[in-house]
Every structure is written in C-alpha cells, then in structure tokens.
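hey so i finally got around to running the thing on that chain from the lab meeting. sorry it took forever, my laptop kept dying and i had to restart like 3 times. anyway pasting the input first so we r on the same page abt which one it is
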Amino acid sequence: MTFGGLTPAVSLVGAMAILLAAVSSALVIGETVIPLSTIWNVLKLEFGYSAPQVNPIDQGILWSYRLPRAILAMACGASLALSGVVLQALLRNPLSDPYILGLSAGASTGAVSVAILGFGAGVLSLSGGAFIGALLAFGFVAWLARMARGEGASSTSSLALLLAGVAGAQLFHALTALIIAKSADANQARAIIFWMMGNLSGSRWPDVYLAVPVAALGLGIIFSHFRALDAMTFGREAAQSMGIRTGAVMAVLIGTTALLTAIMVSLSGAIGFVGLVIPHAVRFLVGVRHVLLIPAAALAGGVFLIMADIVSRVLIPGQTLPIGVVTALVGAPAFAVILVRSSRAHSG
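ok and heres what got predicted. didnt touch it at all, straight out
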C-alpha cells in the first residue's frame, strides 16, 4: 500500500512529523510563548527523568492546560472527520456530516438533558445522554428525509436529506434552548451556550483519557470496514451483489459514528464542518479508496482542529474564541462550494 505515491514507511514518518509539528505549535503558541527547550524539559520532568528546573507557571500551563487541550483537539478532529467519511459513503451524499445532519445538535440536547434535567437518575453519564441524543437525531432525520422522498423510495435524495438535516438540527437546537431557558440558572446558561459553540478551554487529562481510546476504537472499527465502505459508495444494491451485509454494516458504522460524535460533543461542544470539509480535502489528495482515505482523514482532522484551536486562542488578544467559530469561518465557504458543485453534478 502506498500513500500519495510514497511507501508506507515514508508515509507514516511524514504523518507523524506533521502531527508532531501541529502539537508542538499548540504547546508553544499562546498568550505566553514558551520555547521548545522548556517544553522538552517539562515533558522530561513529568515522565520522571532528570532535567533542568523550569518555571512552575510554565510547567503548569504546559502540562495541565496546553498539552491535554492539544490532544483532545486531535482526538475530536480525527473523530469528526472519520464520521464525515462514513456518512458520506453510506448515504452517498457529499454534504453529509454530523453537524449538518443534526447528530451534533441531538448529542447536545442529550448531554444538556442529563446535565440540567438529571435524565438517567444519576446512572446515565453526560456522554451516554449525548449518544442517545445523537441516535435519536439521526433516526429523526432519516425518517423525515424518507417521508419527503416517498415511502417506496430505496434511497434518499441529496436535497431531501439536506433539508431534513437542517430541520432536525433546528428542532434539537430549539429543544436545547428550551431546556436551558426553563431549568438552568444564569451561570449554567452562560457556560452551556459557550460550550455549545465549541469550546476546548476546559480540557483536562480525564477528558483525554476518554476521548483518545474512543477515537482509537472508532478508527479501528471504521478501518476494518474499508472494503464495505468502498462498495457502499456504489449503492446498497451494488454492495449486496458483492456479498456485503449492508444492514449489519450500516448499523455498526452509524452506531460508531453516533458514538464518536456523542463523546466528542460531550467533551468539547458542537464543532461544525470538520466532518464536511476534511473528507473532501483528503479525497483530493489521496483519492476515494477508503484504505487510504480513512487514516488520512483522521490525521488531517486532528491536525486541522489543533490549528483551529491555536487560531481561536490568538486571533483576538486576551480573549479565546469558541473553536466552532473558527471552523465555521473555514467550513461555511467550503460548504457553499461543495453545495454548488454537487448541484451542478446532479443537474448535469
């Protein structure tokens, strides 16, 4: 297997170098610029090796704030990009992504329901509530799109699915707003609204301990189905003729997508357009074969969100923007381009 014409070993080294450069940038850049030598010494000290003593403030900023934030951004970006790859292949729709199809909005509603209303009676966690909300949102959007196209249709048109996603996202956003307005106090409401726009400011190591294994599990499950995803891009009937159990594959992959979206939304809020933009950009570089597309999208998504988080911290001096604002500034124009190209392709 080659990656962009390179050998696997060279591709892996290049990918690790890009990721290391992005994480290093996230550790260096901020209100306080910290040199790489200090970062290296902090890492050596934290892992029990001897190193020159560093400023305790710099050590706290790096180890307790910037490093977990960068790792969480990487896991979230990779997960959202992988979700976009899966949804675009299964639904055969270039506009599919967890944010546009309402999964992120449903996950937000589920998480807020647990946090404010106490759904689950203390048994259901924030992530569990987000997972249930994401599944409900996808079910609603799929049902609405099928109803709009007609009961006898075997597939869902791009326009019907897009409009159903918009309707579903608005419905779940409204439910979330209703819960906040009815049950949250002023401080809760302010914190939740900022979180819903995408926020990595509160990232800590326990978040990393949840996000990284879930992202790795999702990557493993999705990559193990790369042949099925290749077949599904030609339609369910074509995939079935190749011996693919399409029902089981869709159940596993949609469940995995809902899990990835839910966990990342519960930790970082609803971050839009990563699952839309990254798969299209990566297809341009490596092609449409999922054996290359899946790992490349995970890498690109992680690097993209790390860089977006850096921008959110430095764009306005002394103030941190919600990361969802930065991704929307990139994703909204890209969405417009993809929408126009898709419409022209269908009309042609």
